[in-house]
Write a structure and sequence with these properties.
The complex is a heterodimer of chains A (157) and B (116). Chain A has four helices and six strands; from the N terminus they run E-H-E-E-H-E-E-E-H-H. Chain A has helices spanning 12-22, 45-68, 111-128, 140-154; strands at residues 4-6, 24-30, 36-40, 76-80, 84-93, 96-105. A six-stranded antiparallel beta sheet of chain A has the order 1-3-2-6-5-4, with helices on both faces. In chain A, strand 4 and strand 5 form a beta hairpin. Chain B is α+β, with helices and mostly antiparallel strands and 116 residues long. Chain B is built from three helices and five strands, in the order αββαβββα. In chain B, helix 1 packs antiparallel against helix 3. Classes of the chains: A alpha+beta (157), B alpha+beta (116). Chains A and B meet through helix 3 of A and helix 2 of B.
């Protein structure tokens, strides 16, 4: 089974390169509202949904903390565990602001490596993103349908 | 503490041909202290050198060679030198291709002893 899948094809090549170079175990590329554009390493749709929702929630929470501290925004967050680390970074593209959630193993990667190659991923995504188009607002009625379509694309056999 | 590290790194950069020296957290690949010439991408070198050291350490262990004591990566336009330091850190030096490796290694070992 292919480990890297993209709902929007322009994300695929930069993501595959990032995963290889940074030694990432799991990666999600998503919008700030939690809409997934591409993923690497997840084998179950339910895990993607949970990770996307939690990742978007963390970024939203820290953005609010940043606002309270008169900071513009936090660009990246790293949660360091004993065996694994979780890195959350944001980048701006023609498709809008994107969030990247990365899970890496301390044994085979490091926050330094992930940070380094995330910078390159951000540049590659900005270069590959299609020209900005009018994005329809995310409506609750459409959300579930869009989510199901994305998950079907990401986990199609 | 960081002033002491800085002083140790500055001594190494006085060796002719050394472009910069860094103390890097070995597990994270993040820079702890640095003394670099302009143009050297410190964060990139730190992350990649720490990763290399970890992998070479594993190779040495697999080969029953014991822990790594010195790494010398010679490239066409320069050299990368690494010595493990206390507290899980690594001392990384970026140098010209014709650097006196023996002298640089001596200064690196002295610096590492002082870090301890």
């Amino acid at each position: 089974m292919k480990l890297t899948r993209a709902v929007e094809p322009w994300v695929l090549e930069p993501l595959e390169r990032f995963v290889l170079e940074a030694g990432a175990r799991l990666t999600l590329v998503m919008t700030p509202s939690g809409q997934v554009l591409a993923q690497h390493g997840f084998t179950r749709a339910v895990d993607v949904m949970a990770a996307a929702a939690l990742g978007a929630g963390i970024v939203a929470s820290t953005a609010e903390i940043a606002r309270m501290m008169d900071e513009s925004t936090f660009h990246a967050l790293n949660h360091q565990g004993r065996r694994h680390g979780i890195f959350l970074g944001a980048c701006d593209t023609g498709r809008g602001r994107l969030l990247v959630l990365v899970v890496y193993a301390a044994e085979s990667s490091s926050v330094g490596l992930v940070q380094l190659f995330f910078e390159e991923l951000a540049v590659a995504l900005a270069a590959a993103a299609p020209a900005p188009a009018e994005q329809p607002p995310v409506l609750a009625a459409d959300f579930e349908r869009d989510l199901n379509e994305s998950l079907a694309t990401l986990f199609r056999p | 503490m960081s002033l002491r590290f800085q002083r140790l790194l500055d001594v190494i950069t006085r060796v002719r041909g050394v472009q910069g020296a860094m103390l890097v957290a070995g597990e994270d690949g993040l820079v702890v202290a640095e003394s670099l010439m302009e143009g050297v991408r410190g964060n990139a070198v730190a992350a990649l050198a720490a990763s290399l050291t970890k992998r070479f350490g594993r190779a040495a262990e697999a080969g029953g060679l014991g822990p790594v004591s010195f790494l010398h990566l010679q490239a066409t336009d320069g050299a990368l030198l690494v010595v493990p330091a206390p507290e899980g850190m690594v001392l990384v030096v970026v140098a010209d291709a014709d650097v006196n490796v023996g002298l640089a290694r001596l200064e690196m070992r002295r610096a590492v002893e002082e870090v301890a």
